Amino acid sequence: METPPDHAYPDHWEADVVLRDGGTARIRPITTADAERLVSFYEQVSDESKYYRFFAPYPRLSDRDVHRFTHHDYVDRVGLAVTVGGEFIATVRYDRIDERGLPAAAPADEAEVAFLVQDAHQGRGVASALLEHIAAVARERGIRRFAAEVLPANNKMIKVFRDAGYTQKRSFEDGSVRLTLDLEPTAESLAVQRGREQRAEARSVQRLLTPGSVAVVGTGRAPGGVGRTVLRNLLEAGFTGRVYAVNHAFAEDLAELDGVPAFRSVAAIADPVDLAVLAVPAERVPEAVADCGRHGVRGLVVLSAGYAESGAEGRERQRELVRQARSYGMRIIGPNAFGIINTAEAVRLNASLAPEPPDRGCIGLFTQSGAIGIALLSGLYRRGTGLSSFISAGNRADVSGNDILQYWYEDPATDVALLYLESIGNPRKFTRLARRTAALKPVVVVKGARHSGSAPPGHAVPVTRIPDATVSALLRQAGVIRVDTVTELVDAGLLLASQPLPAGPRVAILGNSESLGLLTYDACLTEGLRPLPPRDLTTAATPEDFRAALAPALSDPAVDAVVVTAIPHVGETGTTDPANGGALGTVLRETVTSAPGKPVAVVHVEIEGLAEALAAVEGSARGPAGSAPVPTDAPPPAPARPAAAPPAPASPPTPSAPGVPPASAVPPAPAASGRIPAYPAAERAVRALAEAVRYAQWRRQSAEPGKVPEYLDDAIDESAAAALIARLLGDAPDPHGVPLGGADTRELLGLYGIPVRPTLPAPGPDDAVAAAHRLGYPVALKTTAPHLRHRSDLGGVRLDLADEAQLRLAHRELTESLGGPAELRPVVQAMAPRGVDTVVRAAIDAAAGAVLSFGLAGAPSELLGDLAHRLVPATDRDVAEQIRSIRSAPLLFGWRGSTPVDTLALEELLLRVSRLVDDHPEIVSVTLEPVVVATRGLTVLGANVRLAPAPARDDLGPRSLPSY
Question: Does the pLDDT of residue 940 top 90, yes or no?
Fold first, then answer.
């Protein structure tokens, strides 16, 4: 008998999840084919756990029990299982009940729920993950509450319910605790869910980066090759754990290779293996994964190529690789990866192909390209900067930049996060994680494939439709430092890792070259900084002259940062002194160390030894990670942390001009280390410094986040708007969306306090006159034809028509010059007070979410792309910054003696639009154009709204790993 369509197997309930200990598991609906798995699972559950589940001794399941627990209609009776390696480790079931607790069907909205977790897997967060998923299933099926009967001694289960964050009630009846949970997500339940997600995903990355043992699968029998190179790098780095060489082609009597135990399979290794590096051909990978999975390996680094980067067949091979690895609870770096590095003294892991492993430092580096990873590692090495960790994810089929951010967020060894990204699979989640991380430490991103409109080969991820300029604006809103090149990535990372954050944009410039000082001054102005006049020390300046100039600049309260410029010192004989660079570097470091608190950058031109002297730190030794440590009686110091952003002043001053940050008199924090970053060009140093200034300003502002003003609630009728949207969409909405008519648009916007000035059709001159009498003179006559909309430059709009004669003349001229009434569709509208024409838009991107955009109407936004963007929901601070961040913002603030317009009214309008699309995800686009902002108030003259079925919100559902 066929299953009714409504009760078909819901494959969208299947999900991979990361558990508390960092391992993975799969959650899926239980089917009739699971009888044997269920019985086997139940046999491995302790008698105590069985007693807690059934309130009585229950040694085995009867045939009737097995049938009942494996047959579900997926509506009123639902069962989910958690599997690892294809076997059950936990189950949950709900049964819909009525108010008397008896089995029921919809519209009953309560269900009884019960869990059972295998004892060996208790404490891994299995029940918490199951609760999230079964609650989401229940909400989908119209269930609003869960009821659970729990024995008082079952503290673990009571804690699962108590800690979930849902609104709940508790009572004690007949010797058991009765819990009732309201399944509507709350701010607390969402915070709990995201907190668990962060800890689990961070732990999963930590397991990859801190293994106790590593097996290199595919180690070649002869020197050379990928596997043998990784083995050599592990040994040369001084990895503190156990290392194994694995190759199925090894001779049976081979016991050792390069000094480490050799085996023909992972299964032959007697001890546990935490991490396996796979360097075998793609067709051999499934066999290797199965071997690792059966042995209990925790994670994989797959260096093998031949996956999604090679076409459709490789893409399917990549999906199968992820499915197979996750079925064993393993996470994957790769495939097509370059490897991972952890420079911590307790680990010293170099499971990569890096020819020049980095020193230990405080920068974390993530890259989706092996070639870019090599370049970045080499650049950082040459400039004397070390790393805390390095991850080259290749095709990032599993572990992604989001996972790494989760790890770096709480990693005490990482103070600056650098990421090279070619795709962002979940922009909504990435911006959320980046904002949280950036509140503690800088996050610097360079994104490749910005203009291709698609993900690079191998990156099987959803493609966002929003322009790159919008992506950049949203990253800035999240506090991310977005740079354009990998060179800028390194430049910014060097400064942020070694210098304190600047308290403001005021920059002192000093050096022995007037020309280099002027270039630096110009670069500061270009980047929006406030440079002081350069101080020229002349070409005869000695290192002590630099000390005498730098010390007062560092102590000057009117200076927030210093740029030192230097060219080679030329003596009286016309030759340069090779030792001068080292001496100058030493003097500059000593001066900065004696007066810490302000960032210092050095621009130099071909001064031998200067960069090395600036990068040197007393008591440290250059050398690759894993080299023999310098003997010492004390343990090596932890990597120095960069100084926190200076606290915001009690009343932040208003910028003197839009987009220009105010100077701050807040005392800066001490410098992070004795290193000073050196740059070969003024523009590069100043650009890095400017990014630090903007980031520090964001840090100060984010310390007091904005809010949505409460006054908005007084003029908003959310429920009425929801009812109107449901009526307009109907029972079978068009998945492509429907545009609203003028009356419906005005009604919907009016429910959120956004009045739209009405228009009346004017197909003929008499209709126009009648409309004007209704609206009152003066009026405007304009066409609504799509090709002429908002095109006053083409004559499609006639303004300030004061009487009937002017209106008739305008109507005749319009129809004679541009086309007939049927084509032009002219309308009459009452004139609005004069002001500045602006445009407000909101649009939904499936990956990034709702985006709020603002700009001036016409050429600034359409021709020059002068628009500012913010993620929804926007706060009062967001919209205030948004208005001031466009290049044409001075026109709103009294440019050239004009009267400033009412930007407070504009901010309120942006907040209302943000609230509208945030409350109602069915609104996929809103355009208000033009919005005329006058000296007092504003007028919305045109509006368009489009509705569609609400897209899925993966960031609000139960936590799960992406499946591409």
Answer: yes
CA 739 – CA 726 distance, rounded (Å):
14
Structural contact between residues 330 and 297, judged by C-beta atoms closer than 8 angstroms: yes
- Asked if the peptide bond before residue 107 counts as cis, ω within 30 degrees of 0, the response is yes
CA–CA separation, 296 vs 955, rounded Å? 31
Q: How would residue 456 be classed by pLDDT, with cut points 50, 70 and 90?
A: low
Handedness of CA 289, 295, 296, 300 (dihedral sign): negative
Question: For residue 124, what is the DSSP state?
Answer: S
CB 466 within 8 A of CB 851: yes
What residues form DSSP beta bridges with 27? 15, 82
Q: How far apart are CA 783 and CA 114, in angstroms?
A: 64
> pLDDT, tens digit, for every residue of 342-358?
999 999 999 999 877 78
Among the listed residues 222, 351, 354, 201, the one whose alpha carbon sits nearest the alpha carbon of residue 276: 351
Percent of the chain at pLDDT above 90? 68
Query: What angle is formed at CA 3 by the lines to CA 94 and CA 76, rounded to 5 degrees?
Result: 20
How far is the CA of 631 from the CAs of 241, 378, 620, 621, 924, in angstroms? Answer: 21, 27, 11, 11, 64
Query: What letters, b where the CB count within 10 A reaches 16 and e where it falls short, cover 739-770?
Result: ebebebbbbbbebbbbebbebbebbebebbbe
* Sign of the torsion angle spanned by Cα atoms 459, 464, 467, 468: negative
- β strands within 543-598, DSSP E: 561-566
Which residues touch 942 (CB under 8 Å, ≥6 apart)?
756, 789, 790, 927, 928, 929, 930
C-alpha span between 872 and 926 (Å, rounded): 13
- Residue 317 phi, psi dihedral angles, 5° rounding: -65, -35
Q: In sequence order, what DSSP letters do the residues of 392-459 get, joined into one string?
A: E-TT-SSS-HHHHHHHHHH-TT--EEEEEES--S-HHHHHHHHHHHHTTS-EEEEESSSSSSSPPTT-
Biggest CA-to-CA distance, the chain = 106
Tokens representing 135? 């609650």
Convert the pLDDT of each residue in 780-806 to its tens digit: 998 888 777 656 667 788 888 999 999
Give ∠ CA 586-589-595 in degrees, rounded to 5.
Answer: 140
Q: What is the Cα–Cα distance from 531 to 769, expressed in whole angstroms? A: 61
- CA distances in angstroms from 650 to 646, 647, 656, 665, 701, listed in the order given: 12, 9, 18, 11, 11
For residue 630, what pLDDT is reported?
Answer: 31
> How far is the C-alpha of 334 from the C-alpha of 282, rounded, in Å?
12
Pairing of strands 387-392, 339-342: antiparallel
Rounded Cα distance between 916 and 911, Å, is 9
pLDDT at 826 over 70: yes
Determine if the peptide bond prior to 873 is cis (ω within 30°): yes
Tokens of 816: 């004679």
Report how far apart, in Å, the C-alpha atoms of 891 and of each of 224, 455, 658, 682 are: 65, 39, 10, 33
Instruction: Say if CB 380 and CB 490 are below 8 A apart.
Output: yes
**Non-local CB neighbours of 731 within 8 Å, separated by 6+ positions:** none
Query: CA-to-CA distance for 305 and 139, rounded, in angstroms?
Result: 42
Is residue 242 predicted with pLDDT exceeding 90? yes
Tell me, yes or no, if the pTM score tops 0.70.
Answer: yes
Pairing of strands 299-302, 275-278: parallel
> What residues have CB less than 8 Å from 799, skipping those under 6 apart?
780, 792, 831
What three-state secondary structure class fits 173? strand
Task: Give the strand pairing for 506-511 and 561-566.
Answer: parallel
**Both structure tokens of 361:** 């430092």
Q: Identify the pLDDT of residue 784.
A: 83
Question: Look-up: residue for tokens 């569709």?
Answer: 825
Pair 825, 919: CB distance under 8 Å: no
Structure tokens at 185: 């997500």
Q: What is the pLDDT of residue 755?
A: 94
**HSE-up of 547 (CA within 13 Å, CB side)?**
13
CA distance 245 to 239: 14
Which structure tokens are listed for 412? 């005490």
